[in-house]
Each structure stands twice: as C-alpha cells, then as structure tokens.
Amino acid sequence: MMSETLLYSGKAKDLFSTDDPEVLKMIYKDQATALNGKRKEQITGKGEVNYEISKLIFAYLSQQGIETHLIKNVSETEQLVKKVTIIPLEVVLRNVVAGSFARKFGQPLGQRLEQPIIEYYYKNDALDDPAINISQATALKLVTPTEVATIEAMTKQINTLLIKLFNEIGIDLIDFKLEFGRYQGRLILADEFSPDNCRLWDQKTHSSLDKDVFRQNKGDLVTVYETVLQRLTKMIGGFANV
Ligand code: TMP
C-alpha cells in the first residue's frame, strides 16, 4: 500500500511522496496558466500530452549523457522522480528574440541572437518570480558560484542537443526554461520539458507550437502540442521505454 501525501501543488504538476523517501511521484495536470497563474483554465488532455513530450525529451537527454530526475514512467500522467532539492531559480535560455525579451528591450520578434542568452528568475510566487542576477542569487545563497558554472554548462549543452533534435523535426527552438536540483552532491535536470516551458516555431509556417497559442488565443493547445508529440515520437519514440 503506497502512502502518498501531496507535497507540492504547482501550476501544471503535483508532487506526492511515496513509500521510498528518495522517490517522489510527479503528476501532470490538465491545467494551463498564464500571467504567472492569474489566468487559469482546465484543458482536458493537456497533462497527458505534456507528460508524453517531457518523457521523450528527458529520455533523449538522458541517452545523450544529461542526468535527469526521471526514474520511471508509471501511467499516462505519472512519473517517479528522484527527490532533489530544487534550486529556486528558473533558468531561461534564448536563441531567438521573443516573449519578455522582445517586450523589455524593444527587439524585433524572431531575430536570431548571435550567442544564446541565459537569464535567471527567482522562483517565488509571492514575489511574482522576479528576474535575478548571479550576484544577487549567490548573495541570497540560492546557489553557489560552482553550481552556477555547472548550470550554465548543462543548459548550453541541453540547448545544443535540443536545437539539433527539433531541427530534425522541422521546428526551431526559440527559448526554454529549465530547473535543476541537488541530488547526492550533483546537479541534475529536474521539472519537465514541454511546450509549456519553451517556444517552438514551425520552420515552414512559423506558427507557434507551444503555450503562446494559449497565452495569445492562437489555437487549440492540445492539438498543437499533439503535433509536437507526433513529430518527436517518429524521431525518438524508441528512447521512451525507460
Ligand atoms: P518569457 O519570454 O516570457 O520570459 O519566457 C521565456 C521562456 O521561459 C519561454 O519559453 C517560456 C518559459 N517560461 C516558463 O517556463 N515559466 C515562466 O514562468 C516564464 C516567465 C517563462
């Protein structure tokens, strides 16, 4: 008999304890939010499609040598993951100008950046996840300088791997958000990778294949996410059997 207690309820996922203190169960929810949770909607099928996409991407990254928290996929929306201590930073990498970067700096949407940009946001709902720099984050002891170096290196490596993967299925990886956790003295990739946390533009049509369809009411979220899933499944479906 599993003793499961809800430990954390996020915008798109819930985390439960399991009988093993080192293992948590992560459940993907049918909820979409925008404006840092101020707009909220139930969308049937979203949890499952995000689970499937994240499962494929994490399996792929793991196969390419990136350590992740994923242990095992349990059911259509449930994964067992390693219990990590989450670094309270959202790590955003941008390859192309979009979203808040376009707005904040008045830059033209879709302009490719010469070098990827990495930004950090302090994961704190009460403060609305403010932008934070490394000097601030280390002063607040959210992360150590050594950890920052690892986070940057892993984020760039993941970017290189995923640009290539998405390119092979006709998609440009515009930007994405990652989270990392401490696990047995190492940093490993945690959270998820799905169209909720990245921007994906179709190379032919330039249309969004990500949460911008929800943010900007540009189409049906699940249909769009399923396009991404189908293309990924054709490419790397075999990696998913972890
Ligand atoms: P932004 O352009 O709104 O700053 O977002 C950059 C990328 O980070 C985009 O792919 C969406 C992702 N992101 C999250 O996953 N969670 C967040 O809370 C925010 C603000 C962005």
Structure overview:
The protein is an alpha+beta fold. It has helices spanning 46-63, 99-105, 134-139, 145-168, 212-215, 221-236; strands at 6-9, 13-17, 23-28, 31-34, 39-42, 70-73, 78-82, 85-86, 89-96, 112-122, 131-132, 171-183, 186-190, 198-202. The strands form 3 sheets. Strands 8, 9, 10, 11, 12, 13 and 14 form a 7-stranded antiparallel sheet that branches. Strand 2 and strand 3 form a beta hairpin. Helix 1 (46-63) packs parallel to helix 6. It is globular, with a radius of gyration of 17 Å. Bound molecules: thymidine-5'-phosphate. Thymidine-5'-phosphate binds next to strand 9, helix 2, strand 12 and strand 14.
Question: What secondary-structure arrangement, pairings included, does this model have?
Answer:
Layout: E1 6-9, E2 13-17, E3 23-28, E4 31-34, E5 39-42, H1 46-63, E6 70-73, E7 78-82, E8 85-86, E9 89-96, H2 99-105, E10 112-122, E11 131-132, H3 134-139, H4 145-168, E12 171-183, E13 186-190, E14 198-202, H5 212-215, H6 221-236
Antiparallel strand pairs: 1-2, 2-3, 3-7, 4-5, 6-7, 8-12, 9-10, 9-12, 10-11, 12-13, 12-14
Helix pairs in contact: 1-6
Bound molecules: thymidine-5'-phosphate.
Residues 90, 92, 98-101, 129, 175-177, 197-199 line the site of thymidine-5'-phosphate.
